[in-house]
Amino acid sequence: MKAKVYNFDIKGDDRGSLIALEENRNIPFTIKRVFYIYNTLPGVNRGEHAHFLTQQLLICIKGSCMITLDDGKDKQTIKLDSPNKALLQKQMIWGKMYDFSDDCVLMVLSDRYYEESDYIRSYDTFIKYVNYGDMI
């Protein structure tokens, strides 16, 4: 597995910086949902699930956090620590977010609306789907 990291163009001048996010341009899908995670307590992990259908783009717009992506065979860990850097989490990839800085704001763009049935919340079940697919 090779995690896809996006680096957004930073526009700006002496007034400050701006990053524009445009679906199907620098975002690789049509955006259906946006949410953000903040005020995460020390030692708390987030995510720890996979999606059957949803892909997400994770952007740490303030502070930093670690993201581990796992396809059932290989794991890759990426530090998100800049608002111009994003990590793509595709469908059927287990994601874990952790080691949030006190000021971390992690924004997530999704290509699907929230649907509980799209979530795989047990790692053991995820591994079974990866290894056996439709046979479950």
Report what the structure shows.
This protein has one helix at 123-132; strands spanning 4-7, 11-13, 16-18, 33-38, 46-51, 56-62, 65-70, 75-80, 85-89, 94-98, 105-110, 119-120. The chain is mainly beta and 136 residues long. It has a single domain (4-135), classed as Jelly Rolls (Sandwich). It has a five-stranded antiparallel sheet with strand order 1-9-6-11-4, with no helix packed on it. The chain has a five-stranded antiparallel sheet with strand order 8-7-10-5-12. The longest helix is centred in the last third of the chain and has 10 residues, at 123-132.
Please outline the helices and strands.
Layout: E1 4-7, E2 11-13, E3 16-18, E4 33-38, E5 46-51, E6 56-62, E7 65-70, E8 75-80, E9 85-89, E10 94-98, E11 105-110, E12 119-120, H1 123-132
Antiparallel strand pairs: 1-9, 2-3, 4-11, 5-10, 5-12, 6-9, 6-11, 7-8, 7-10
Features:
mainly beta; Jelly Rolls; 5-stranded antiparallel β-sheet; globular
* Low-confidence parts: none
Second CATH tier, the architecture: Sandwich
The largest sheet is:
5 strands, antiparallel
Whole-number tally of structural domains: 1
How many helices? The count is: 1
The amount of helix comes to under 10%
In CATH, the homologous superfamily goes by the name Jelly Rolls
| The first-level CATH class name | Mainly Beta
